[in-house]
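Dear Dr. H.,

I hope your travels went smoothly. While you were away I took the liberty of generating a structure for the chain from your last submission, since the lab meeting agenda had it listed for discussion. I wanted you to have the full record in hand beforehand rather than looking at slides cold. The sequence, exactly as received, is reproduced here:
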Amino acid sequence: NNVGAYRLDEKVLNVLGAYHQRIDEERGAPRQEAPGGRDGGQDQRMRAVGPETGRFLNILVRSLTAPTILELGTSFGYSGIWLAETARATGGRLITMEVHGYKSAHAQTMAEKAGLAEHIDFRVGDAVAMIRELRGKVDFVLVDLWKDLYLPCLEAFYPKLNTGAIIVADNMIYPVTEDVKIYARAIRTKPGITSVLLPVGSGLEVSRYEP
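The corresponding predicted structure, in token form, is as follows:
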């Protein structure tokens, strides 16, 4: 697990290491899902993208200059560390959205330990409503929240994409649901979008907006 290849600083490496330990422990434990797949605010599963996807996100964002990065689904903050690290490196900023305050709070604590909190704007609430309220445009979007929100979120953020914006949606191969299929069809029909499905992590739909 060669996360050091990026010359990530020690604080960031330590925090990623703590997350990786938790991810490994979770993979070895029996799954306990709430009815309907959603939790009422007690879910402790990381559901993190994993190191391969994290590195891939980091590489992609490094190709942008001073990007505004939008993360839909903070969860416990793992992918946000990879995104915030590259926001710091490129002079950008990360806006991350989460419905559960306790998850966002944990992510904020970890970002502070990593020395990255000042590059992150943590927002808690309904993602679609918060996207609509966003001022300004975005250059990178990570879509990794409840799958039935993928399409409503796409409709909300599509008008806010800068030329050259990159959109990455997670869980596009595993676990396959009707909602992710709907998202894949929808984003590929949007004007100006070029899209490819990559077998990285749980499957990533990587799209670029060039009107």
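Two observations you may find useful: The beta strands are 68-72, 93-98, 120-124, 138-143, 161-169, 193-198, 204-209. The chain has a mean pLDDT of 90.

With kind regards,
E. W.
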